[in-house]
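Exercise 7. Given the encoded structure of a 82-residue chain, write a plausible sequence.
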């Protein structure tokens, strides 16, 4: 299982701070998230700031980044107010 932590508007909209899911890649995770909680579409979620084990997924293989049991994923809204 992968632990997903939500920040910003996602945490407020999903009304939870974390979620555990069996996902094989970032793309798979976002698809499962949008199906389970249709507050945001897959396309909207693709604009998120995503960290995998404290590394920005843009420095990895982006949406093709493989996920393993025990990985930690942070998903933050693309913009936050101050």
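Solution.
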């Amino acid at each position: 299982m992968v632990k997903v932590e939500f920040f910003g508007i996602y945490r407020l909209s999903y009304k939870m701070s974390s979620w555990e899911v069996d996902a094989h890649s970032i793309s798979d995770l976002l698809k499962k998230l949008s199906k389970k909680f249709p507050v945001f579409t897959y396309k909207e979620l693709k604009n998120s700031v995503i960290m995998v084990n404290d590394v920005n997924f843009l420095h990895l293989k982006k949406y093709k980044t493989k996920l393993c049991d025990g990985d930690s994923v942070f998903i933050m809204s693309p913009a936050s107010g101050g």
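Remark. The chain has a mean pLDDT of 95. Students should compare their own answers with the one above.
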